[in-house]
Write a structure and sequence with these properties.
By secondary structure, the protein is α/β, with parallel strands linked by helices. The chain is about 35% helix and about 30% strand. The termini are close together. Bound molecules: adenine.
Length: about 230
Amino acid sequence: MLGIIGAMDEEVAKIKEQMEDVQVMEKAGMEFFEGVLSGKKVVVVRSGIGKVNAALCTQILVDTYEVDAVINTGIAGSLNADINIGDIVLSTDTVEHDMDAVAFGYPLGQIPRMDTFSFETDSALRALAKRVCEEKLSEISIFEGRVVSGDQFVSDKTKKEWLVSNFAGYCTEMEGAAIAHAAYLNRIPCLIVRAISDKADDSASVDYPTFEAQAIQNSVKLLLGICEKL
Ligand code: ADE
């Protein structure tokens, strides 16, 4: 069983429309849609926004549905001038950019007393996603790199530069690292797939609503393609 998490209704609505044999369960304020997508058994859920919602949601997928992998699909702000609106970032690893225990000698982003700085995501899932992108989304560019997450919509040039210089992230959003963190603790593979809706700078709050729908369309297309091949 594959778990598919989107933070917002808009990010999962189009996926749910394509599912067959759907059964719905409600837990922790989230609706879990279990069924078949492109021939693959899946559970699709809107986690809600932010790291806590995302981590809780991942744990419910593990405990209740015993998922053997999790994919997070959604949108993000670009942290790299080469990564444009509509392009897709496939995660290599993730960091929680709002974790700060520098006072105790840890690097920014490092969670104290954990044995890893970043949470690596699954290379086989990433390779599969890349193949689907090349086949189905040849008009956009695909990047593989670090996704940084925090409970903050980044819409400020100074904050963006801070993220780039401290974490070398490719894009920023609000859930991916929490999902990868929960997947790491449960020893299951995961992948974060993010289509770019804005540049995480002073124009982000204008670009975001303008390009949200287009970006979501790209990430949904990719997800359906992944399920076909799994
Ligand atoms: N999701 C999409 N764009 C974002 C941004 N600029 N910051 C945080 N999350 C986002």
